[in-house]
Design a protein that fits this description.
- The protein contains five helices and ten strands; from the N terminus they run H-H-H-E-E-E-E-E-E-H-E-E-E-H-E.
- It is α+β, with helices and mostly antiparallel strands.
- The chain has a five-stranded mixed beta barrel with strand order 5-6-8-9-10.
- The model has no long low-confidence stretch (mean pLDDT 85).
């Protein structure tokens, strides 16, 4: 992303962050106990009350904490919060091996997968999970929600598969999976001026049915 679009986007994000900080600060100040300088009692105070300060009754920081949690939840909100569960029978196909095909400890992954650069398969006799070459993907069509534009970006890794931690480890790409994509060619920068290399995106389609990966960038 370059030029005027990038400037407008960064200005908008900066104003949003400033507004969020102001909101949090207002919540913190509202709920903190502080001395009440306005309340001046009539008449003289006893000596044992002279060293005490009148305090305004205030709640604990529960409201501020709730607001912070809401903001944090909104920051990490994803387009697809719930996805359909996938059974192991649907995910894996049993591969029978051995001279008389009696051994059934190998599994073939039937969904789209991602393997990193320089990936080397294990020896055939030791490989438990087989990931077919035809179902391996390296690029994804990522849509930027603010710009309403789609870019084809390189996949850098699988962050989390909601189905199972094992699927995350195997790099299985199903609907709702959070992937890491390379956004260096978009020219995105942080508020400090540093270039952003990678960002997270969530897959919104079923790659094994469509033959491609469509995702939405998490900004």
């Amino acid at each position: 992303m370059h030029g005027l679009k990038a400037k407008l986007l960064h200005a908008k994000r900066y104003s949003e962050k400033v507004q969020m900080k102001k909101t949090l600060k207002a919540h913190d100040e509202r709920n903190v106990k502080r001395p009440d300088s306005e309340a001046v009692p009539e008449g003289a105070l006893p000596t044992y009350l002279l060293d005490r300060e009148n305090q305004k009754d205030a709640k604990a920081l529960s409201t501020a904490l709730k607001q912070k949690r809401k903001d944090k939840a909104a920051k990490y909100a994803v387009p697809l919060p719930k996805v359909r569960g996938i059974a192991e029978d649907e995910m894996f196909k049993v591969v029978r091996t051995g001279k008389s095909k009696t051994k059934a400890w190998k599994r073939m992954v039937t969904k789209a997968t991602f393997v990193g650069e320089g990936f080397t398969r294990k020896p055939v006799k030791m490989e438990r999970f087989i990931r077919p070459m035809a179902l391996r993907y390296k690029k994804a069509n990522v849509t930027h929600p603010d710009l309403k534009a789609t870019f084809q970006l390189q996949i850098m890794g699988v962050k989390k598969n909601p189905q199972s931690p094992m699927y995350t480890q195997l790099g299985v790409l199903t609907k709702g999976t959070i992937i890491e994509v390379n956004v260096s060619e978009l020219g995105m920068v942080t508020t400090g001026g540093k270039a952003v290399v990678a960002k997270y995106a969530q897959i919104t389609n079923n790659p094994e049915n469509d033959g491609c990966i469509n995702a939405v960038l998490l900004v």
